[in-house]
Specification:
Elements (H helix, E strand, L loop, with lengths): L26 E7 L16 E10 H8 L4 E3 L2 E5 L9 E6 L7 H12 L14 H4 L5 E7 L4 H15 L6 H9 L3 E2 L7 H6 L5 E9 L2 E11 L2 E9 L8 H19 L6 E7 L15 E4 L6 E3 H10 L19
Length: 332
């Protein structure tokens, strides 16, 4: 049978009902199957198909359940790719942040930053800890609730122009895409350490990177019950030589470790969105090991090395369960 994106959405508008009496509950508008659109990865006209919902309010625990079923969000829009007919296969990917070790290329990047006096004289691992990095002579990193500022918008506009050739990045589009979040802040932890790391508990945040007092980059993240989920990164093109994409990922992995230690032992994973085998610019995510891909048939997370051969055999889309024939999942 084809993968049916509607199979887990029949009760999605009722999520959270009956839990935490008195708290606001998740409120969704089911949009259903969306009109086919141009694929943003292989650029096939009318190649992408998805099931959508619009979130007015979204509890962090409910969104955690959704992304563990292959959903993602763009602003308040929640979407699940219809893999039975889309041109590209999208596999949710995550890494075990507590088990991640720095690769040689990452250690080399940190050494480069030290040569440029961006970091202090700490060991490679501790150079990613917030208490150490913010003590660097030129770099300051601040984690703050997601909110619009003109400074952030101007960096976003320059990034879109230089990297994506987007000449029409508007303030309203930036606000709705990367600043407004339906996630409700959930402060379920106690203690000074939790307040130091997450000023408002679980929810949507901007991790802002300042170099010599200038905003160089912003990482948009969702902090959820078991993970930090990366939403987007944008940076000032003047700082492109700093490899901010790689460094921000290392910082976000380090954040998971800090949250695991000081906020909740359940926070263990770093979610990186979609791994798209047919798109070279999206396969880099596999280098953050140990990595896992989500099987959208069994809803189990499978080590990526066990998945790659199945993907090569069935490039359109596949399950990683050898007991299930992938030929029956997608239309020819």
């Amino acid at each position: 049978m084809p993968v049916a994106p509607t199979s887990d959405t029949s009760n999605v508008s009722q999520m959270g009902r009956g839990r935490h009496a008195g708290a606001e509950q998740t409120q969704l508008q089911i949009l259903g199957m969306q009109r086919r659109s141009r694929c943003g990865y292989c650029h096939t006209p009318n190649g992408s198909s998805c099931f959508g919902a619009r979130a007015r309010l979204l509890r962090c625990s409910d969104y955690q359940a959704l992304i563990d079923r292959g959903w993602r969000r763009s602003g308040s829009l929640l979407y699940l790719t219809d893999h039975s007919s889309s041109c590209c296969a999208y596999y949710s990917i995550r890494t075990h942040a507590l088990s991640h070790t720095l690769q040689q290329s990452e250690k080399k990047l940190l050494r480069k930053w030290r040569r440029w006096e961006l970091l202090g004289d700490s060991a490679p691992g501790s150079a990613l800890d917030s208490s150490v990095v913010t003590a660097g002579r030129r770099l300051v990193v601040r984690l703050e609730p997601a909110a619009y500022s003109e400074e952030k918008y101007l960096v976003f506009e320059r990034y879109q122009r230089a990297v994506h050739n987007d000449m029409d990045a508007s303030r309203s589009g930036f606000q709705s895409f990367l600043c407004s979040s339906p996630l409700m802040f959930d402060d379920t932890t106690d203690g000074a350490a939790s307040g130091r790391l997450l000023s408002r508990g679980l929810g949507s945040y901007h991790q802002c990177y300042y170099v010599d007092g200038r905003l160089a980059a912003v990482g948009v993240i969702d902090v959820l019950p078991t993970c930090v989920s990366s939403v987007y990164l944008f940076y000032d093109p003047e700082f492109s030589d700093l490899s901010l994409g790689t460094y921000s990922s290392l910082r976000e992995i380090a954040l998971v470790r800090e949250l695991n230690r000081y906020v909740s032992p359940d926070i263990k994973y770093y979610y990186m969105g979609y791994f798209i085998p047919s798109c070279p610019k999206m396969t880099y995510k596999a280098r953050w090991r140990p990595a896992e891909l989500l099987d959208l048939v069994t809803f189990e997370w499978i080590p990526i090395d066990q998945c790659l051969e199945r993907i090569r055999q069935h490039p359109a889309f596949c399950t990683f369960d050898p007991r299930i024939s992938s030929r029956n999942i997608v239309r020819n």
